[in-house]
Structures are given as C-alpha cells and as structure tokens.
Amino acid sequence: MEKTILHKADTRGHADHGWLQSFHTFSFANYHNPERMHFGALRVLNDDTVSAGMGFGTHPHENMEIISIPLEGDLEHQDSMGNKTVIRNGDIQILSAGTGIRHSEYNKNTDEPVKFLQIWIIPNKRDTEPRYDQITLDPKERHNKLQQVLSPNPQDAGVWIEQDAWFHLGTFDKGTTTDYQFKKQGNGLYVFVLKGTITVNNQELNSRDGFGIWNTDTVSIQANSQAEFLLMEVPMAF
C-alpha cells in the first residue's frame, strides 16, 4: 500500500544566526524533532541563505555524502584536498566525505546573499577515499522534463555518490505532467518544491513543501503553475 509523509514549508525547523537563515526539513544542529530524523537515507535537507561576505568556517565531515545545489548567488568552497572553487545557480556539488575531510563555504559576494540547498545522504559504504566534484548543468534539459543530476553511477548523467540514489530537477510550465519511475525497488521518493505549485499523486504542494512517497511503483507529477522542483530517490532501508 502506498505510503506518504507531508512536510509543509512552515513546519520546518528554523535557525536564525543573523548571517545565516537556515530552514531544516529534518533534525539538524539545535533543531531536534524525533519524528523528523530522516527520510530513508536522506538525512539532511537544509534551505540556507548566507549574508554577503559571510560563511561557514573550516569544519570536518566523515562518512556522509554532502550535496550542495546553489539557487542564487556565488558560494566559494575550499577543502583539505586542495580544492578552491565557486559554485553558482545551475551547478551541483558533491563532497563524498568518506574517511574524513575538512572544508569551508563562504558567500563570495559582498553585496548580495547566497541561497543554496545542503543535502546529506547516508552512504552505503563507509571509510571510502574522500572525493569532490562539481558540474554545471544545462537548464534547458529540465524544461518540461526531468533532468537527472545525481546517480550512483559515475558513467551516468550528473554527479555520483556512494548510495543507490537518483536526483532529478524539473522546471515545468503550468499544465505540464510527467510520471516518475523508480530506479530501484524498495526506494522512496522525496519531492521538494523550489517554486510554484505542483500536484504529486493527488497531493498539492507549494513552494518549499516536502513530500515523501514510497511503497508505490509510479509517481505522477503535474505543474499547477510555473514550477521548479527537486526529486530525490533514496533507499528506505540502509
């Protein structure tokens, strides 16, 4: 039987650090909700806005797949592997922490905020060699269709991670419909709306709403307005 869980935008945890406004779909840092620890292997979904010239100082991670998707502005990344790069809207970044890595993230601009999604996926392999990658996506490839941006296969489209997970982005005109087919049996799908209104299997979702669905074979999606959304297929058991 199909199972679902709805997380409305205004029910998320919120942290106001002055320079950082962060909305947490799942428990993170000082926000702890025992009913919102994860959705399968999806452990963290943070919707962050960093003030001009501010950022996260150098800090460690290990045994976590960390994905950053910039929405506005320029985010500067530095890490202990020697990478120093900037990611912008249209890019996707993967930091596969493995045995351990240290990194920092700063808003490169002094006159505008940077907005990005920070997503953590629990890996299916521990203590792997740390790895960093980023790619620039073609936004035309998600206009009224689903653009794969992440998978478990280095040969596939998008970045790859140490987990049987697949991410897709969509930018749909009003009235556009599509069906999502699961890539692996036993996985679930978490839908996060970036802009607009969509209906997923009869559930209407608005901007920044999240919706998890599992124990089903197909997911139908309809855009009720101009809409942008992220689909995250992840294992429910891990």
TrEMBL record:
Identify a single GO molecular function assigned to this protein: metal ion binding
Describe the location of the Quercetin 2,3-dioxygenase C-terminal cupin domain by residue ranges: 149-234
Entry note: cofactor? Binds 1 Fe cation per subunit.
A Pfam family of the record is Pirin
Q: Does the record carry Metal-binding as a key word? A: yes
Q: Which cofactor does it need?
A: Fe cation
Q: Where is the Pirin N-terminal domain?
A: 12-121
Keywords, A to Z, come to: Iron, Metal-binding
| Name this protein carries in UniProt | Pirin family protein
